[in-house]
Design goal:
Number of helices: 10
Radius of gyration: 20 Å
Number of strands: 15
Distance between the termini: 14 Å
Order of helices and strands: EEEHEEEEHHEHEHEHEHEHEHEHE
Length: 332
C-alpha cells in the first residue's frame, strides 16, 4: 500500500486520436489524510465519450479542459481506507470525481455514499452520469407523453439505453439506433424496445418508416451521423429534439453537415442541447425521479469491464470504435 499509480494528461489529442503518448503514468507514495479528510482507494472507474472533449484545448465548452500535467478527469467508486472526517467511516463505499488514479485524498465534498444493495457497477451504470444525464435530458427537455414515439441514437450505450427504458416504462413507443445486430437484439429482446435499427445496414429510410408508423415525436440524439437527417425528416409537428452527444463527429476533422432546417420551420420542431454541469444542483430531484424505476425493475444495464488502470486509454478507444457492449468501466 506504500505506492500507487496515477495517470496524467501531458499532450492534447491531434485530430481526436487517443494514444498512449497523451498520458504519463507516475508512481506516487500513498498519502495520508489530514484533519477532515478521507483516503479513498478507487475500485471502479468510469470511461465516458465526454473525456475526449475534456482533453481538448476547447475553452468554450461546458466544462474547462483538463490542464496538461493534471490527473486525467473521471468519476469512479472507491472504498474509504482511512477517515478523519466525521461523516465518513472506514469501509464506506463512495462515488464521486476520482480521476485516473488508484488512491486519492478528499475532504469529502462531491462524494456520496453508496446505499446498501447498490453495487459498484450499478452505481456507475445507473446512478452516476449515465442515469442523471438520461433523466435530465428526457424529462426536463424531452417532455415525453404516453403514446408518443421516441427514437434514441447510441441506444445501446449507457445513456441511450436508460433513456429508452424510461420512455418505454412511461408508455411511449421506443426505437433505438445502434451499430450492430447484436446490440439491436439486446434492445428488443432484453430491454423491451419496440424496434431497433443497425445504422450500418442498408435501406435505413425504409427501416425507419416501417418502425415509426405514426412518425416521430421525440428524438434523443447521442451520435449524429447520416441517420440524423432521416430522423429529422420523419418527425411530427411540434416534435422535440434533445441533443446530448455527437460521438460520430468527436474524432472528425470537419463535422458532418446537419439536417436541412426547412423541416424545423414547417413542423415547428424545437431543439435543445444540454450538459450535466448545468444541473448538478438538481441531483437529489433527479435521483428521486430515477430511483423508483430502478426499484421496480424497469431499468436493466450491462457493464463492459476491463481490468487495470493501465488499460484505461485502450478502453476509451473502444468507446469510439463501438466495440464496447455496455457501460465502460475500469476495474482497479
Amino acid at each position: 500500500m506504500s505506492e500507487y499509480k496515477e495517470i496524467k494528461l501531458v499532450k492534447r489529442p491531434v485530430k481526436g486520436q487517443i494514444d498512449a503518448s497523451l498520458f504519463s503514468t507516475e508512481q506516487k507514495q500513498v498519502p495520508m489524510p489530514g484533519e477532515g479528510e478521507i483516503l479513498i482507494r478507487q475500485t471502479h472507474m468510469s470511461l465516458d465519450p465526454a473525456m475526449l472533449g475534456w482533453m481538448s484545448e476547447d475553452r468554450e465548452s461546458y466544462i474547462p479542459p483538463v490542464e496538461l500535467g493534471e490527473v486525467m478527469r473521471s468519476s469512479g467508486v472507491g472504498e474509504v481506507i482511512k477517515s478523519n472526517h466525521p461523516d465518513f467511516c472506514e469501509g464506506d463505499k463512495v462515488m464521486g470525481m476520482t480521476g485516473w488514479r488508484e488512491y486519492l485524498v478528499s475532504d469529502g465534498k462531491g462524494f456520496n455514499k453508496l446505499q446498501p444493495g447498490i453495487s459498484e457497477e450499478m452505481a456507475l451504470c445507473v446512478f452516476a452520469l449515465p442515469g442523471l444525464t438520461a433523466t435530465t435530458g428526457l424529462y426536463k427537455f424531452g417532455k415525453p407523453e404516453a403514446g408518443e414515439t421516441l427514437i434514441v441514437t447510441g441506444a445501446a450505450g449507457s445513456v441511450g439505453s436508460i433513456v429508452g427504458q424510461l420512455a418505454k416504462a412511461d408508455g411511449l413507443r421506443v426505437i433505438g439506433v445502434v451499430g450492430s445486430d447484436e446490440k439491436a437484439e439486446w434492445l428488443v429482446n432484453e430491454l423491451g424496445f419496440d424496434g431497433a435499427i443497425n445504422y450500418k445496414t442498408d435501406n435505413l429510410k425504409a427501416q425507419l418508416d416501417a418502425l415509426t408508423p405514426n412518425r416521430i415525436d421525440l428524438f434523443f440524439e447521442n451520435t449524429g451521423g447520416p441517420v440524423q437527417q432521416l430522423i429529422v425528416n420523419r418527425m411530427n409537428e411540434h416534435g422535440r429534439i434533445v441533443v446530448c452527444g455527437m460521438i460520430a463527429d468527436y474524432q472528425s476533422d470537419t463535422p458532418s453537415p446537419g439536417p436541412n432546417w426547412i423541416p424545423l420551420i414547417k413542423k415547428r420542431i424545437s431543439i435543445q442541447g444540454f450538459a450535466m454541469p448545468d444541473h448538478w444542483g438538481e441531483i437529489p430531484q433527479l435521483l428521486e425521479k430515477l430511483t423508483p424505476y430502478v426499484q421496480q425493475g424497469k431499468i436493466k444495464y450491462r457493464a463492459h469491464i476491463i481490468e487495470g488502470l493501465e488499460n484505461a486509454q485502450s478502453g476509451l478507444n473502444m468507446l469510439f470504435d463501438g466495440k464496447n457492449t455496455g457501460k465502460m468501466i475500469v476495474k482497479l
